[in-house]
Amino acid sequence: MRAEALALTFLVTAAAAACADPAPTSVPTSEPLAFVPDLVPATADDPIVPIPTRLDLDARKVALGEKLFKDPILSRDRDTSCLVCHPFGKGGADGMPKSQLFGKEPLAVNTPTVFNVGLNYKLHWNGKWDSLEAQLDTPILNPKVMNITYGEIVSRLDASTDYKPAFAAIYTDGVTEKNFRDAVATYERSLLTPRSRFDRFLSGEPEAIDDRERQGYALFKSHGCISCHQGVNVGGNMMQRFGALKDYFAGRTITEADLGLYLVTNREEDKHVFRVASLRNVALTAPYFHDGSVDTLEKAVRIMAEYQLGRPLTDEQTGLIVAFLGSLTGDTGVEGL
Amino acid sequence: MKRDLAFRGLWILGVAAFAGQWVHAERARIVGPEHDAYLHDVRSLQASDARLNEQVMQSRQSLVTHYDDLARTVTALHRLHGRLDRTPAFLSPADAEVVRQAAGVSREALAEKARIVEQFKSENAVLRNSSRFFPIAAQDLRDRLRADPDAATLAPIVNEVLIAVLHYTQLPSGAQLARAQDAITALERASMPGAFRDDADVVSLHARTLLSRGPKVADLTNAVLTVPTAPAAEAVDAAYGRGVHAAEQQSAHRRGFMFATLLAALGLMAADFVLRYRRAARSERDTAAKLAAANETLLREKEREKELSDLKSRFVSMTSHEFRTPLAVILSSAELLEAYGERWVPTKRSDHYGRIKGAVGTMRELLDAVLVIGKSDAGKLECKPGPLDVGRFLREAIDAIASTSLRHEVRTDIAEPLPSAEIDEKLANHVITNLLSNAVKYSPAGGVVRVKAKADGKDLVLEVADRGIGIGRADRARLFESFHRGANVGTIPGTGLGLAVVKRAVTAHGGSIDVRSEEGEGTTFIVRLPVFTGESDQREAARAPSSPGRTTTVV
Fold this sequence. Notes:
The complex is a heterodimer of chains A (337) and B (555).
Chain A: H1 2-20, H2 59-69, H3 82-85, H4 132-135, H5 137-141, H6 150-159, H7 163-170, H8 177-189, H9 197-202, H10 211-223, E1 239-241, H11 262-265, E2 273-275, H12 297-308, H13 315-326
Antiparallel strand pairs in A: 1-2
Chain B: H1 2-28, H2 32-60, H3 68-84, H4 93-147, H5 155-170, H6 174-189, H7 194-226, H8 229-340, H9 346-377, E1 386-388, H10 390-402, E2 409-414, E3 421-423, H11 425-441, E4 448-456, E5 459-466, H12 473-476, H13 498-508, E6 512-518, E7 522-530, H14 534-543, E8 551-554
Parallel strand pairs in B: 2-4
Antiparallel strand pairs in B: 1-3, 2-8, 4-5, 5-7, 6-7
Helix pairs in contact in B: 1-8, 2-3, 2-7, 2-8, 3-4, 4-5, 4-7, 4-8, 5-6, 5-7, 6-7, 8-9, 9-13, 10-11, 11-13
């Protein structure tokens, strides 16, 4: 009798426990918000939107991501961190036409800035990636950059007395590839450069930019630059052929990197199609273009006007636009948080 | 025991099955938040797709100034599709697969649409620039040409380009296209003065851009709107709806089955407990009953032992007494005869010899009785019937009694002639002798003893009645037991064997014996012995006179 009573008690308890603690439901993971609306809205019909000054991110993930971003543990030989190619002092890129790490081949394309990447619609010059988490493949797996595998990174982090508890504190499943990507991407999203003079102008401070810059902005719009360089990141939200109105590559030796989106889609019509670069902090991120072939902003602006707009600029006009672009340099010291 | 274990195992199994089903059902239960989140995604898919179309149209009309919102919508659609693969756990695997397949179709449609949207954005941006800039550039060139006397003749060529291209952009048609192309070709062939050459090239470039990009953007817009994302999204919605419905029904069925299992298990459990309780109670009762029975048996055996022991002691005391009396008579008569026989008169001598003979006779009777009872008890009392004249036999028996008693009157009433009978004479003798001697012994002097005999069918009915002391009610039950004597016998000598012998003899002969008696009133024994054979009975009855003979013997 006692045995049965025990068995029954056990079963009832088990059933009750099963009832009380149902199978874990897959709660949709909170999508990291691109940004929350700013307190001071831009004028409704302005094609450029100010960078938000507040972000809704998990501060613990940001801190962990920052540590990872700056740690050479992510490279096979422990000699390269993300910061090597994305030093903050140089506008989030290394200032070289094509980055070349010690003892390695130079990269195929110019290193873009890491600032404001969270605001980009697509990533990489050829628009290969839809998310920062996915984009990590480019530096991590590249033999010319980190030259490592996620498995190796996970085992290194799992063996680390620093990282293992830090991951465990944030993620229930500790160190995993997914969580690694999440932490780094979350940190990258925090790397915004708000409060540029131009954003302050947009947000209701007419005196934040000077007359030349204001004229440059007007020209930027009227000349047609704004058709592609628009939105919060002044670019970064669409693809465009390099040479929309005039063949930029005519008479040049075409490299693989010049093929752009074609490398992703293999469609003839996608040849030389690149992601429109963001012009945020553009004054800091010379040299320019996917191949880093242009060393000054003036030259870059002229090339754009000629090949993309079919509307050459005068020296005066170029100067005005360059002046306007300078007002897009944001607050890189405070990383968005 | 084995059946018990199987029974118990069955309900424990039932409860376990119930618990298992419960866990399973809980897992398959339609979880509100999970369902809401997924349904929200499915519906968002359709809403976002509609918004995407709207935003493309707005961009086409230059109603929006940047692509951020459009890009965000596409991103949202990609994320939604990423989540749609994680179907809620409560869907059956088959239904979940159907939903995922529908989502896959939707995702492919979206990928196609997103690709076209990207092309649209690129081409639309270029078209937008040219459509804005072309009229300004063309007017500017025309006006400057007009203002220059050397080049004024070229102004109409530029003007024709301006008019034809704008006309075409407003009302695209084959004719307008041909006109516009002709106008542009004319401009390109015209020999522009150096100061106007570059500007003319720019006008031509943008004019051609409008002619090529205009239809392209229109086609891309059309393509965006015709990619079947909306039906695909609806299909996901429908598949999910069907899956949820199926899951609801499944859940209801499972619950029903689950509770049926529980009921069955509880029923079995209750039955098990009841049966075991009953069995326990029964076994307790059984044990008690067995104990009681054993106790009773023990008591009975003890009693029987006591009875046997009593019987033995009675037998010993009785026999010793009964033997001692005649032995004493024999001894005293023998001693007297030895001492005085010479001097006694012959009559007195013969008196003592008579006493000796009588005592010996008594002893022989006693021994006979003991022998009969012993044989009977041993099952060796045999009945060997032979032809016997019942009337004569009875009369001789009565005469024999008469020789031992002096003061009783025996009246016989024998319904003669009796049919010829087959009787064991020895057994019959035991019966009649004992009954008669008892009747005489327990009747006062001068009492009447009646003996009746008649034929009743095949039975000889023999009645011996006296008016003696009778038999008490208590004694009647044990009347035929050996050595049992009535409480009212007083000093009348007796062995307590006579009736026992009678009973055994009657039984051995296949007959029966009844007794009617009142204490102090007298006793009647009725013996029935099946002694007449049917045929001879008829013959004898036919031959014999009907009047029964009646005699009285005074003894």
